[in-house]
Amino acid sequence: MNQKENIFNQHEENTDWKNRLDFYKTEIQILKNLLGEVAEKNTAEDVQKQVEHYQNQFIVQRNNIDLLAHNIQLNEDKLQKEIVSNPVAVDHRKMAYHQTEKEFIDFFETNFNEVRHDFKVFAAKWM
Fold it and tell me: Which terminus of the chain is more exposed, N or C, with fewer CB under 10 A?
């Protein structure tokens, strides 16, 4: 399906996504700090294995954020080129909808929320 969407609406959605990704970056840093506290207070091997697991999860999530931010910026660049090449009636023109990015951010948020929830359960147990 080749869905089309208003250029301005896509720009607004991109801006919203970038803001959400910034929030998740901050959230990862907070979770990493908490993970450091758990690691410091609990040196048992089974706890340290879980600490390493969550360190890896946070790295994966951060990489996903970076990839999403890059893809969103590519979409923004495409929108800008379209506007510059033909500035007439920009408010009413449509472009192919960025469905891939939407699906990726939906997947990312679901996955991130699961990781965060699991980590908070783990941290509560060992703090």
Answer: N
Non-local CB neighbours of 119 within 8 Å, separated by 6+ positions: 31, 34, 35, 54, 57
To the nearest 10°, report the CA torsion of 4, 6, 9, 14.
Answer: 50
Over pLDDT 70: what percentage of the chain? 99
**Tokens encoding 119:** 């980590």
DSSP three-state, residue 125? helix
3-state helix, strand, coil in the chain (%, to 5): 85, 5, 10
**Distance between CA 34 and CA 32 in Å, rounded?**
5
- Asked whether the whole model's pTM tops 0.85, one would answer yes
Q: Is 30 exposed, middle or buried (0-12, 13-18, 19+ CB in 10 A)?
A: exposed
